[in-house]
């Protein structure tokens, strides 16, 4: 009687292939927008700046709700759109613009770029400009407006940057704010010297930005003037 032949061992099981994404993942790559910022005119460190607001912080009549409705009506009447890049207001400006019913007809959206690095990464503000002049400067306000306009594909870009308090930012005092607009005819930056606490500065900044946009719309379309 002969013994049974030895049983061969099972063949080795190949390991499961590694799980991969459908596209290469680069976790350390900086976040950038899909396209570079373009503007109707070069963004410089010192664009034209309109005079400051008065010492009482007044920047025009009308509540933000009233101004937002007037801005929306002007945007719709002109057949144009707006996008926002905001810093110290933290979304309040976009919220004001989207408050009135029907805002989707003219408001493209907003970028809340509170951190300095996000001003470059999301809104396209040139890093050398930020390094040379800091985040609160007329050049940065101009670049933010141009970036919002370009990256959100709007007719107009609207921006705000400043110091709401309670503490100054380096040598920039509380209440220093720049609001900017960029549109088909170029752009404008206004310097504000606002009084009051943090909430008052932020509310006045929203009102000033709406004022600026409405003025730009009426300057380009005289039929919109009251």
SSE layout and pairing:
Blueprint: E1 49-50, H1 64-78, E2 82-86, H2 92-97, E3 107-112, H3 116-121, H4 127-133, H5 138-151, E4 156-162, E5 176-183, E6 186-193, H6 198-220
Parallel strand pairs: 1-6, 2-3, 2-4
Antiparallel strand pairs: 4-5, 5-6
Helix pairs in contact: 1-6
What distinguishing features does this structure have?
globular, alpha/beta, Maf protein, six-stranded mixed beta sheet, 226 residues, 16% strand
Q: Can you walk through the features of this model?
A:
The chain has 226 residues and is of the alpha/beta class. It has a single domain, classed as Maf protein, CATH 3.90.950. It is built from 6 helices and 6 strands, in the order βαβαβαααβββα. Helix 1 runs parallel beside helix 6.
CATH topology: Maf protein
Taking the alpha carbons of the first and last residues, their distance comes to 115 Å
Give the strand line-up of the largest sheet. 1-6-5-4-2-3
Q: DSSP strand (E) fraction?
A: 15-25%
Number of helices: 6
- As a percent range, the share of helical residues equals 25-40%
CATH class: Alpha Beta
């Amino acid at each position: 009687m002969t013994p049974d032949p030895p049983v061969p061992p099972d063949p080795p099981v190949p390991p499961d292939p590694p799980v991969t994404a459908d596209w290469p993942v680069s976790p350390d790559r900086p976040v950038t927008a899909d396209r570079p910022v373009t503007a109707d005119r070069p963004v410089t460190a010192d664009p034209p700046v309109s005079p400051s607001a008065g010492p009482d912080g007044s920047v025009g009549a009308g509540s933000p709700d009233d101004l937002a409705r007037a801005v929306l009506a002007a945007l719709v009447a002109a057949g144009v759109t707006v996008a926002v890049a905001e810093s110290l207001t933290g979304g309040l400006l976009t919220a004001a613009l989207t408050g009135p019913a029907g805002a989707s007809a003219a408001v493209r959206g907003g970028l809340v770029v509170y951190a300095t690095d996000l001003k470059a990464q999301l809104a396209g503000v040139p890093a050398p400009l930020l390094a040379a002049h800091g985040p609160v400067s007329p050049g940065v306000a101009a670049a933010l407006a141009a970036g919002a306009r370009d990256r959100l594909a709007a007719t107009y870009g609207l921006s705000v940057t400043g110091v709401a308090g309670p503490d100054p930012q380096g040598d920039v005092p509380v209440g220093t704010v720049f609001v900017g607009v960029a549109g088909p005819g170029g752009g404008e930056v206004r310097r504000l010297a606002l009084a009051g606490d943090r909430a008052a500065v932020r509310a006045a900044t929203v009102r000033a930005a709406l004022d600026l946009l409405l003025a730009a719309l009426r300057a380009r379309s005289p039929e919109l003037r009251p």
